[in-house]
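Quick note —
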Amino acid sequence: MDWGRAKTVLIFAFFVLNLILGYELWLSGGALGGPEGEAETTIEDIRKLLSARGIRLDVELPARPPRFQKYVLKLDEASLSSERTALEPPVPAPEGADAGEVWRAAAIRVDKGDEYEFDVWTSDGGVFVGFQLLAGVPVFGVELKFFRENGAVVAFHRQYAQPISEEGGEQPVLSAPDALRRLLDAGAMPEGTSVRDVRFGLLYRPFEEPEGLTVPAWRVVLDVRPTSVGTASGQASSAQAVAQGSGNGQQPAASTRRIYFVEAYHGEVSEVRSQAANAG
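Predicted structure written out below.
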């Protein structure tokens, strides 16, 4: 055997391997780091940054999955209809009842109801909402809703989606601190904001009914003081703030609850809901 030639081949092979690994590391760093290629934001970094700007962090930030992927989903036929289905017999839901318990009591009465998870932040008044689970995380936008009338849950509307393909393979995702950093940079968290919830999941985006694409995303729930309500800039789009006092003898406005999504691959920000925050 020509050992000199074999040694040359091995050295060249290791050199190529190092180039490949270095390129993958560079890609991962670009996907996971902070804005403008900065180093990844740590939990301690974001706590200090929020505190310095007068923003409260009311939750423990969750760990991120190391990698996640996109899915193409197909909604079933019933999902495309807006008609409600009667729940027989109705489930008792008196005023003041725990919304999560009411939702779960109703969900066990619905086919595939155990494949959904209750969400307190999108449930409001007489509507109790849960999201379908896929790969262990909620699919924001694929919902099981229950409707209360006269102290009881009397109807529901269920969307159900089946994954039909996986797109692009697993990729690194942003951390929760980096997602909050993106919101800060987009102007979505003025002074006086409270961060109420941070949750990782899949954001459903229909592209040709009944199919849609899910992308990994962080959902962030904020309560914004009325004196600080503003419009997010940069990549963020903001809905019209609600319940603002006019200053002409009206009662002071309630805080505004805003729900944002930060895509976990590249950090794009969008707001999907803005409403008067309740006491919860």
